[in-house]
Amino acid sequence: MESLSRWVVLGVLLSAVALPMVPQVSDSEGNKVAAESDWSELNLSMEKMHVAMASVAPSGKSDVDFVRLMLPHHQAAIDMAKTQLLFGKDPQMRRLAQEIITDQQSEIELMQFWLKQHPPQNK
To answer: DSSP code of 118?
Structure first.
């Protein structure tokens, strides 16, 4: 789990470095606003995923831990795909985003069902 914490910290640091690189433009009042709010939305999805994954305590069961960590990972994929549908223009990428939403949601439901049959028993 210690290596997961390192990944979370790395993700947060990379987000902190990447967000200032979003191109800035000024609105009609001269306030700076992000030119690409989709970039911010994508990073927010990743940050939420890292926080959720970091909050998972090890159960001592590899299968349970895998599923509990994959749930926020899949949710982040759905959130990112929804952002793509809001901002993306390319038809192939929009279709991929729709497929990701459908597939990942189905897998989330399967994992939630499996977890109900195999409840984690924390140490």
So the answer is: S
pLDDT tens sequence across 5-16: 555 444 544 444
Give one DSSP letter per residue of 50-112, joined into a string. Answer: HHHHHTPPP-S-HHHHHHHHHHHHHHHHHHHHHHHHHH---HHHHHHHHHHHHHHHHHHHHHH
Question: Cβ contacts of residue 80 below 8 Å, gap of 6+?
Answer: 42, 45, 46, 100
From CA 39, how far away is CA 11, in angstroms rounded? 15
**Is 2-117 in CATH node 3.90.1150?**
no
Domain map (residue ranges) of the chain: 2-117
